[in-house]
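Sample pair:
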Amino acid sequence: MRKPIIAANWKLHKTVAETGAFLNAFLPEVTGIDDVEIVIAPPYTALLSATGKLSGTNVTLAAQNVFYEERGAYTGEISPAMIKDLGCAYAIIGHSERRQYFGETDETVNKRIKAALGHGLKVIFCIGETLEQREAGRTNKVLKGQLDGGLTDIPIDDIVVAYEPVWAIGTGVTATTGQAQEAHAFIRGVLQKKYGDKAQGVRILYGGSVKPDNVDDIMACPDVDGALVGGASLEPDSFAKLVKFRRSQK
């Protein structure tokens, strides 16, 4: 059985002090929970302080991105070794906002994934279609293209896939359970053809306006193994409720 992951992507939110205050309130709420993997991705500036607070807890640290070179003249970038040094176990790679605003492509996503894995980081690999692509009936083609391009020559062992329909991110619109399950099942089918039976062990997260009042229904989908959460992860009580979603036998 695949262990669920509930992951927080804070994006461009929270100072060091705000991160500390969040963790002080959040950690007591999730102490002892061991049937869900809890992951938090603060901004780079708060990673080191978060590491100290998360030491010895059941919460894992992630970076929101990572560069594909180890060192060099790349102003503003952060290498996998630096991320690892700050205590991160995961890196989020390929998020639609990185693709939309910063020009990341399937090729550069692939390079980032290889670099992260090469330094012992696990990867949350994001894929998803825009509203225009969905309305044009191209969802499966887009998802397959992103999977094929991002995972070229990459083993699946330390990869978590996050399906984030771009039209549902930060919009308040959530994919229906039918839409979520259909996309997740398609993704698993693509992985099955590429990796064989190992695909059954790959965790596939849903992301896109996940909230405490819809997480139970989303998590009940057979091929949904967790959530990558934006806005609803910014408040300790809200994120704790997500971590404590109603368990069901799938």
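The domain at 5-243 is CATH 3.20.20.70 (TIM Barrel).
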